[in-house]
């Protein structure tokens, strides 16, 4: 099922903080040779093209595209992931730090 609330900014803020510390250029190297890329740490195992042979590249982009400070490609790919049956649960950081939490804390004290 689709996650219609993916567009909520606080969801993206919480996820970006706990996956990469807001680092758009973050690359985490896994033991199997795959990488997690960009501000949302999107895996090369399934979602982007890297040097790993036989990866499925479901977002149809290079993993390096996910490292750009312009987040357009990253958000497009993350939205594709969020529309999968697992939804935002794809991200361990979401399950452990954001899901079911009061995300309003992220803007507490801001004059919005």
From TrEMBL:
<dbReference type="InterPro" id="IPR023346">
    <property type="entry name" value="Lysozyme-like_dom_sf"/>
</dbReference>
<feature type="signal peptide">
    <location>
        <begin position="1"/>
        <end position="21"/>
    </location>
</feature>
<protein>
    <recommendedName>
        <fullName>Sperm acrosome membrane-associated protein 3</fullName>
    </recommendedName>
</protein>
<comment type="similarity">
    <text>Belongs to the glycosyl hydrolase 22 family.</text>
</comment>
<dbReference type="GO" id="GO:0036126">
    <property type="term" value="C:sperm flagellum"/>
</dbReference>
<keyword id="KW-0732">Signal</keyword>
<keyword id="KW-1015">Disulfide bond</keyword>
<dbReference type="GO" id="GO:0003796">
    <property type="term" value="F:lysozyme activity"/>
</dbReference>
<dbReference type="GO" id="GO:0007342">
    <property type="term" value="P:fusion of sperm to egg plasma membrane involved in single fertilization"/>
</dbReference>
<dbReference type="GO" id="GO:0002080">
    <property type="term" value="C:acrosomal membrane"/>
</dbReference>
<comment type="subunit">
    <text>Interacts with ASTL.</text>
</comment>
<dbReference type="Pfam" id="PF00062">
    <property type="entry name" value="Lys"/>
</dbReference>
<comment type="function">
    <text>Sperm surface membrane protein that may be involved in sperm-egg plasma membrane adhesion and fusion during fertilization. It could be a potential receptor for the egg oligosaccharide residue N-acetylglucosamine, which is present in the extracellular matrix over the egg plasma membrane. The processed form has no detectable bacteriolytic activity in vitro.</text>
</comment>
<dbReference type="InterPro" id="IPR000974">
    <property type="entry name" value="Glyco_hydro_22_lys"/>
</dbReference>
<dbReference type="InterPro" id="IPR019799">
    <property type="entry name" value="Glyco_hydro_22_CS"/>
</dbReference>
<feature type="domain" description="Glycosyl hydrolases family 22 (GH22)">
    <location>
        <begin position="59"/>
        <end position="77"/>
    </location>
</feature>
<dbReference type="InterPro" id="IPR001916">
    <property type="entry name" value="Glyco_hydro_22"/>
</dbReference>
